[in-house]
Amino acid sequence: MRRLYHFALSPHCRKVRLALKEKALDFELAPIEPWAADPDFLVLNPAGEVPVLVEDDGTVLAESQAICEYLDEAYPDRPLIGFDPVHRAETRRLVAWFDLRFHADVTNYLVGEKVIKRLKGEGYPESAVIRAGQHNIRYHLDYVSFLSERRNWLAGEEFSLADIAASAQIACVDYLGAIPWDDFPLARDWYARIKSRPTFRSLLADQVRGLPPPKHYADLDF
Ligand SMILES: N[C@@H](CCC(=O)N[C@@H](CS)C(=O)NCC(=O)O)C(=O)O
Predict the structure, then answer these.
(1) Most ligand 1 atoms within 8 A of CB, residue of 5, 12, 64 to mutate
(2) How far apart are the first and last CA of the chain?
(3) Model pTM greater than 0.85?
(4) CA-to-CA distance for 122 and 172, rounded, in angstroms?
(5) Are 166 and 94 in contact (CB under 8 A)?
(6) For residue 215, what is the enclosing H or E element?
(7) What pLDDT, in 10s, does the model give residues 63-121?
(8) Which atom of ligand 1 is closest in space to residue 9's alpha carbon?
(9) Closest C-alpha among 100, 89, 78 to residue 12
(10) Which of 49, 70, 103 to mutate to test the pocket of ligand 1 (most atoms within 8 A of CB)?
(11) Does ligand 1 have an atom closer than 6 angstroms to the CB of 69?
(12) What CATH number should be reported for the domain whose range is 85-197?
């Protein structure tokens, strides 16, 4: 069986999980805390990072975008990276925006400080770091609102990996109850549409030890 090594609140892992689900590919999840630097895991990915996907035939893939590009090429039935060169370029631009910028500006501050620091035993969250994440998220939700007001989905008319990358980041932050949804109704409408996709269900059932999500997290009408 295809296996995905993952950490539940890793947005890059959630991105690959969603891509696999959208492509209706079967897989099992292998939870891992990558910072434990398990030697067996380092053999799979010397970078020591999740996600890592191991195909049925033993092929090992690492790095979320490399995995998603591979999935779109190897299983082209339900394309996620666009239908023409312009849509593909726009999808990739936005995927990079959320994977890198949103992650560095928001998720890394909030999930990193509130969850991963604790799991690593590195002490208590610093309020200045959390404030920075909460400040930055407003710019990103403005941008999601701007895009979703002009387009059906973030990269254009069709649902794409851009929506997956964005919702993977946002879902991790929403798990902490840190999204000011009331101030961003357009972003909320877009996220509600993603949340109601059957492919999103398993993410909404995730639980991190010692940290239950807020009630609205799994609620489709939030
Ligand atoms: N560029 C990588 C980033 C992956 C990444 O940052 N993974 C984090 C979890 S979100 C990780 O495994 N960190 C290892 C650690 O904290 O030691 C990708 O897209 O796959």
Answers:
(1) 12
(2) 35
(3) yes
(4) 20
(5) yes
(6) none
(7) 999 999 999 999 999 999 988 999 999 999 999 999 999 999 999 999 999 999 988 89
(8) 10
(9) 100
(10) 49
(11) no
(12) 1.20.1050.10
